[in-house]
Design a protein that fits this description.
Blueprint (H helix, E strand, L loop, with lengths): L6 H11 L4 H8 L3 H9 L19 H9 L33 H11 L5 H8 L3 H8 L14 H4 L4 H18 L5 H6 L3 H6 L19 H13 L12 H8 L1
Helix pairs in contact: 1-2, 2-3, 5-7
Length: 250
């Protein structure tokens, strides 16, 4: 936060006690320039008591003097008591209430398609706790039967760049450990940009593996053998000789 506390009361004091421009006051207090002009005209903040930013350690007199001398100089907040204790906290990111029900689906997707990611990385990506991740990994989650894996990027729980960065970090760690990886694992460890730039790698479906040495050369021979085994059409109409017929008559 870079705005003073009691911004409107501070603006009232600056308008009444300095020759700063409306824009300078508006930029410092987070107000619109016309709103500051309304304060000067008495149309806005009527009855509001001015809040002295100098005695309250939010501005220095030197900064005000420089800004009064040069309209291009901006006021700088010296100290903001409302920001005390608001340092960046470590832990899972905040997830909006409307999207919290989607977290188990995204966790299952990450666990299934990127098992190399640590629980800490998954926690930072989708904003969840390690016990929840562990329960989904071990399929002991109370609702595991109804959870379907969904890409967290599609759900809006994280950005594609964040997911790619986590995957690349996992890949570097795995490579440093010297662990062997299959082709499918290497593809998973690539970022989206890299995988889209790769040429297609034709693969034989596993259902017909072992047929890569199959040739069609033997099919013609088999067909010829079958045709040779079939009886000739004339053989069905072979009639006995006339001599044999006469012998039968005798």
């Amino acid at each position: 936060m870079d705005k003073p506390i009691m911004a409107k009361a501070t603006a009232v004091w600056l308008v009444d006690n300095t020759t700063l421009t409306f824009k300078q006051v508006a930029d410092f207090c987070g107000l619109h320039e016309l709103e500051v002009q309304g304060i000067a005209d008495g149309d806005v903040a009527a009855g509001v008591k001015g809040f002295d930013p100098i005695t309250n350690n939010q501005l220095t007199q030197e900064n005000i003097d420089k800004a009064e001398a040069d309209p291009m100089v901006k006021l700088k907040l010296k100290f903001n008591p409302s920001a005390v204790g608001e340092e960046k906290r470590r832990g899972p990111r905040y997830t909006p209430l409307s999207k919290r029900q989607d977290r188990p689906a995204s966790i299952l997707w990450l666990v299934k398609f990127h098992p190399e990611l640590t629980d800490g990385q998954v926690s930072k990506l989708v904003g969840t706790t390690k016990p929840t991740i562990q329960a989904i990994r071990e399929r002991t989650h109370w609702n595991i039967a109804n959870i379907q894996p969904i890409d967290p990027v599609a759900l809006g729980l994280c950005k594609q760049s964040e997911l790619d960065a986590a995957v690349q970090k996992a890949a570097a760690k795995k490579a440093a450990e010297g662990a062997s990886m299959s082709d499918d694992e290497r593809r998973k460890l690539l970022s989206t940009e890299q995988s889209l730039g790769m040429e297609a790698d034709p693969k034989i479906p596993t259902a017909i593996s072992g047929l890569e040495t199959f040739t069609l050369g033997g099919a013609d021979d088999e067909e010829e053998e079958k045709e040779a085994a079939l009886p000739d059409a004339d053989s069905f109409f072979n009639l006995p000789d006339s001599d044999e017929d006469e012998a039968d008559e005798d």
